[in-house]
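User: Can you recover a sequence for this backbone? Please restate the input before giving your answer.

Assistant: Of course. Working from this structure:
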């Protein structure tokens, strides 16, 4: 598979990748002004002649051009099941995402949560009604990306509406955010699920790709090792959280982030969300109990 990687920007977290494959654009960057401007410039150059869009998932750093750049909005879009409805109601999604993050961090902030209005803005116009959704696909469907027929592989966990796209003849998989640069689970608001995350990783392993094109960072030419590392880190995190809960009794998610995930003052808010996701998963499989206050408090089963 021939591809061109274009790096756009997002607030706080570095670059986000979009890919040109033939006349198809895969993902469209963040909604931030600088990302939008870079995308507009690229449409006059490296991305000129794009005819359609495929979204790996509907997070705010992957749908920016879709909902804020008219020349992208009007192009026919292919999305995974559920992403179509979310895109049509995107301001509501952002508002609910803010509410979840406020709840999950309430134990740390004492309820004085200030939303990240730069990363999750509500003061811009989202083209929710104008976006041209041409096709909604499910697991096992075939999507044409440029000249290539690719298998839709449902890879949830980071987002329930997340798909990877696998071109078997070349061994290339567009993997979105399911495999992170550092191998750890990436929290994304509302539709996270650690059990589904591990299932998604296993589904990539089953295809045995030769190259991953991720949503962030460099292409990964060692997919098997990356997936193995991610699964081991997930298991290790589960063990660390289980041990902290058994050792300390009732423990809030922000304390778990410090004890089990080595969170610092700079990372504790985000890692509290990650710790919450793991604690919810462990409660679902019955190894611990949790209480929502509304933040997550974990305790021995």
């Amino acid at each position: 598979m021939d591809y061109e990687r274009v790096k756009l920007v997002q607030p706080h977290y570095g670059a986000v990748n979009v890919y040109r494959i033939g006349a198809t654009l895969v993902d469209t960057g963040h909604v931030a002004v600088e990302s939008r401007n870079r995308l507009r410039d690229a449409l006059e150059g490296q991305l000129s002649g794009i005819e359609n869009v495929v979204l790996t998932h509907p997070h705010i750093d992957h749908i920016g051009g879709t909902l804020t750049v008219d020349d992208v909005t009007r192009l026919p879009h292919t999305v995974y099941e559920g992403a179509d409805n979310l895109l049509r109601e995107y301001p509501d999604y952002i508002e609910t995402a803010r509410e979840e993050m406020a709840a999950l961090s309430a134990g740390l902030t004492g309820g004085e949560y200030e939303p990240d209005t730069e990363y999750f803005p509500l003061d811009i116009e989202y083209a929710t009604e104008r976006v041209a959704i041409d096709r909604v696909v499910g697991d096992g469907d075939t999507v044409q990306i440029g000249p290539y027929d690719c298998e839709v592989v449902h890879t949830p966990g980071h987002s329930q509406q997340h798909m990877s796209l696998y071109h078997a003849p070349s061994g290339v998989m567009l993997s979105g955010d399911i495999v992170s640069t550092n191998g750890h689970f990436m929290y994304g608001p509302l539709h996270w699920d650690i059990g589904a995350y591990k299932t998604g990783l296993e589904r990539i392993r089953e295809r045995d790709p030769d190259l991953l094109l991720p949503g962030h960072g460099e292409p990964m030419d060692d997919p098997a090792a990356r997936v193995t590392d991610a699964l081991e880190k997930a298991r290790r995190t589960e063990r660390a959280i289980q041990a902290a809960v058994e050792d300390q009794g009732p423990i809030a998610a922000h304390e778990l982030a410090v004890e089990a995930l080595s969170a610092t003052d700079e990372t504790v808010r985000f890692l509290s969300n990650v710790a919450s996701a793991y604690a919810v998963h462990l409660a679902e499989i019955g190894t611990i109990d949790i209480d929502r206050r509304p933040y997550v408090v974990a305790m021995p089963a």
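That completes the design. The chain has two domains: 4-104+118-230, 244-300.
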